Amino acid sequence: IIWDSIVLPTSIPASITDMGESVFYSCKDLKSIKLPSTMTKISKKMCWCCSGLEAVYIPDSVVSIGICAFDCCASLSTVSLPKNLKIIEEDAFSSCTSLKKLSLPYGVTEIKSGAFSGCTSLKEINLPNTITVLGDEVFQDCEKLKTVTLPSEIKEIEFYAFMKESTRRKV
Q: What phi, psi does 42 have (nearest 5°)?
């Protein structure tokens, strides 16, 4: 099998309602992907280590983004988050080092552990008032993230949520 000759679609057919774990695992030549409005969730590790992935278009029908869904997508700089999104799972966007700005839609209630850890270019993130939980290490090592306005409804901020690696090494 010669994997380099596979042509990956940039738009997934509307007949697809669910995609299994790691469906695009390490597809380095995948540049962008538009998911159909028939999907309600992004599966675990769906685009894990797709180093060439630059843009993801997620339909409003999606309510959760799975564990490590876009982890290690170093070129990912454009993400359209769905307006019905509720939960961003562990490490969903971890190590997306090209991601600079993100607006989370009103309705997101929980951002789980490490969801944006290692997003070293992330400068700005808008958190809606619906967020009640920020998981541990959620923004760890986001070196350029200087200001975060916490929602008035927040109930829990778990350990090391905003820790930077350089801070950890200082005694």
A: -100, 125
